[in-house]
Amino acid sequence: xxxxxxxxxxxxxxxxxxxxxxxxxxxxxxxxxxxxxxxxxxxxxxxxxxxxxxxxxxxxxxxxxxxxxxxxxxxxxxxxxxxxxxxxxxxxxxxx
Length: 96
Known about the structure:
This protein is α+β, with helices and mostly antiparallel strands. Helix content is about 20%, strand content about 25%. Strands 1-4-3-2 form a four-stranded mixed β-sheet. The relative contact order is 0.25.
């Protein structure tokens, strides 16, 4: 299981995977249904994103880190600190 996901500054989620949290955060930023936003796989492999911060094979917690990528016109930043994942969506200019 990936770390618990928190979205800053205002979006909250019940997503259990980081990739789902990114889609939810983008949809919230767009005030849109998650199924209507640009697919995450257009920018990054969702499974690879989830595995990057998933526990190791012996269930150890991975050290924190940050991943940034562009999805359509938005910058996405995923940061894991102390076992919590934070998703930030910024610099969006147009609705897609």
